[in-house]
Structure formats: structure tokens, C-alpha cells
Design goal:
The structure is a single chain. The protein has about 260 residues and is an alpha/beta fold. It has seven helices and ten strands. The protein has a ten-stranded mixed sheet with strand order 1-2-3-4-5-6-7-8-9-10. The longest helix has 17 residues. It is globular, with a radius of gyration of 18 Å. The N and C termini lie close together (about 10 Å).
Length: about 260
């Protein structure tokens, strides 16, 4: 996609996570009902198409109990917040005790209905998803796992790990990035979506690459992305069909491709 089509220019920090979206150390807010908490700047693998490729290590992460309390207090002061994303980096690079420290800090708040574990672990390190971790994550009844999955082959890798979570009552969703030369044909995308639903992983979003500097080689044209979406929509039911979107700086929502 040509970024000019959406009046975007690539940036190292397109969503202002080092500036206006940073509400207190380690907490980002772009939308009124949800916040993102930076739990770590460590990942299992550093994706070349990562939104934060230029700011990991520069953005504050929450380490101490005092810093976590500051984030919790911010959420308490903003009662519209109902959804907390635990991200980074990858929160599951932390120990079980550290992960649950974050989960429990927000799960006890009545206003919080959803806590999202944003992770690549089921794909990059499936052994990290143990029965014990799944049991701990399920305890509050508020945790979802959002897993970054780009190909049907990755579904095969993560299927057993995802099943541990789902079987314990932790819903698992997939966020996919549309990548040139990786999953940018109708057949490849359809195969991915079918594999996800068969593994009881909810296909949630398929993203155009974010407007981050240096990602041009991965970016798929808007016309091609729309053709892929139409092809899939004509061949699978809504249960297996994600929203194809672009995340545009300043927008009040993830923007469906048919609006671009």
C-alpha cells in the first residue's frame, strides 16, 4: 500500500508511544476503553516488521511494584477503561510469577473485563505454554491470549500450546500481519484462516503493515489486500473471517480496508 493513499508518512514512532500516547511510565493509551502496559522490552524473536522496532529499549517498561501501582492508579482514575493489554516486548518472556503480578494487579479491578496477553510464545516457544501457566491465566476469568500468527505452518506449530489455553477457558485470538511474499496470496491467506478456526483460534485481525520506517519491502498494495479479503469472504463463514484493517495514526478505530 502506498502510504500516501491514507495521508500517512512512515515514522519510527507513528502512534506516539514515546510522546502523546504515553500517559504514565510504561502505560500507553490511544483509545478510551483500553490501555497498553509495557511489561518488558524483550521478545522471543524480534520481527523485522515490528511496529516498535525503533522504540524497544527506548520506551519505559514497568519493573517495580511502585511503577505498576502508578499504572493501576491511572486506570482507576479512568473508569471508561475496561480492557488492559499486557505487551512489550512479549509478556511471556517473564516468569509465571511476574506475568501473574501484572494480571492480578488489574484483574482485581471491577471495571476491568478483559486482560489481553499479547504474545508470540505459542509460535516461537510453544513449551512456554505449560499446563500450570494456562491454569493460572484462567483463574480470574478475564484473560484472553492474543497471538501473532502469520502462516498456516505457524498454526501447526502452536496448535498444542493454544489448546492448553483454550481447554482451560482462556480464549485465543490471532492477529496476522499481511506480508509481501509470506501470506499475500488468496490461497495462502485462506489456508491460514481455515487452519486457525480448526485449531479453535479466533481469527481476529489481518493488518496492513503499520506506517513504520523501513517496512516498505513487506507492504502489500491496498488493491491486493482487498482482493485477498474478498476471496476469503466468499469461501469461509464469518466465524473464520477476521477483519482486514489498517491501523492509522490519529484514527478512532482500526480502519477497515473497504473504507480506504
Amino acid at each position: 500500500m502506498k502510504l500516501e493513499t491514507c495521508n500517512m508518512k512512515p515514522s519510527k514512532d507513528p502512534f506516539g508511544e514515546l510522546s502523546h500516547a504515553s500517559k504514565c511510565p510504561g502505560l500507553k493509551q490511544r483509545f478510551p476503553d483500553r490501555v497498553l502496559v509495557m511489561t518488558t522490552d524483550t521478545c522471543f524473536g524480534y520481527c523485522a516488521h515490528c511496529t516498535r522496532k525503533w522504540i524497544l529499549g527506548k520506551s519505559k517498561v514497568v519493573k517495580t511494584d511502585a511503577e505498576l501501582k502508578t499504572c493501576v492508579d491511572y486506570v482507576k482514575r479512568h473508569p471508561k477503561v475496561r480492557d488492559v493489554l499486557l505487551s512489550g516486548g512479549d509478556v511471556l518472556t517473564l516468569s509465571d510469577a511476574q506475568v501473574m503480578r501484572f494480571v492480578n494487579a488489574f484483574a482485581v479491578l471491577d471495571q476491568i473485563e478483559v486482560i489481553r496477553i499479547c504474545t508470540r510464545a505459542p509460535v516461537s516457544n510453544p513449551k512456554r505454554i505449560t499446563d500450570r501457566l494456562a491454569r493460572l491465566l484462567a483463574k480470574s476469568g478475564k484473560v484472553w491470549a492474543n497471538v501473532h500468527i502469520n502462516t498456516a505452518a505457524e498454526v501447526a506449530t502452536c496448535r498444542a500450546a493454544a489448546a492448553k489455553l483454550v481447554n482451560r477457558g482462556v480464549p485465543v485470538s490471532s492477529q496476522t500481519v499481511l506480508l509481501k511474499g509470506v501470506n499475500d496470496t488468496p490461497a495462502k491467506m485462506l489456508k491460514l484462516l481455515q487452519a486457525l478456526s480448526a485449531a479453535r483460534i479466533r481469527p481476529y485481525y489481518v493488518f496492513q503493515c503499520d506506517p513504520v520506517e523501513g517496512l516498505d519491502r513487506f507492504r502489500v498494495s491496498l488493491d491486493r489486500a482487498k482482493r485477498i479479503e474478498r476471496y476469503c469472504a466468499e469461501r469461509i463463514g464469518g466465524l473464520a473471517l477476521p477483519r482486514f484493517v489498517a491501523d492509522l495514526p490519529g484514527a478512532k478505530r482500526k480502519t477497515p480496508l473497504d473504507l480506504l
